[in-house]
Design a protein that fits this description.
Length: 124
């Protein structure tokens, strides 16, 4: 299970182990991002994110993208749709303008969510 310091802090360690790649505050990427091992975004990203893995979006992240991932921990701002085959966890600092499609959803107090949610059957 993921360890947390506070409710508004993204996990430092994921279910699959440590985070392998971290984009730092001040970084800015545009395009299509595909990855397999856990990835943490602390900076800005615009485009599309595709993975079966774990995506951690920190409190400092600003994302304008549609996201398809296995698991998404959201602590920053996202404008776009999120589709997660396992789950989405929105931390208290999260701001989402877009729709969610996932079998499991956890929303903390303080989250700003402007969109719709579709609960789907878990992937086999």
């Amino acid at each position: 299970m993921a360890e947390r310091k506070k409710n508004s802090t993204i996990p430092q360690v994921t279910e699959d182990g440590t985070v392998y790649t971290i984009t730092q505050v001040g970084s800015n990427f545009i395009g299509t991002l595909e990855f397999e091992k856990p990835l943490q975004i602390n900076g800005d990203f615009q485009g599309e994110i595709i993975s079966n893995g774990i995506l951690l979006i920190s409190e400092t992240a600003n994302i304008k993208a549609n996201i398809k991932a296995g698991t998404v921990f959201l602590g920053g701002q996202v404008i776009g749709n999120i589709e997660a085959s396992n789950r989405v966890e929105m931390l208290s600092t999260a701001k989402l303008t877009g729709n969610i499609k996932t079998p499991k959803l956890q929303i903390a107090d303080g989250v700003v969510f402007d969109g719709n949610c579709e609960m789907i059957s878990p992937s086999s």
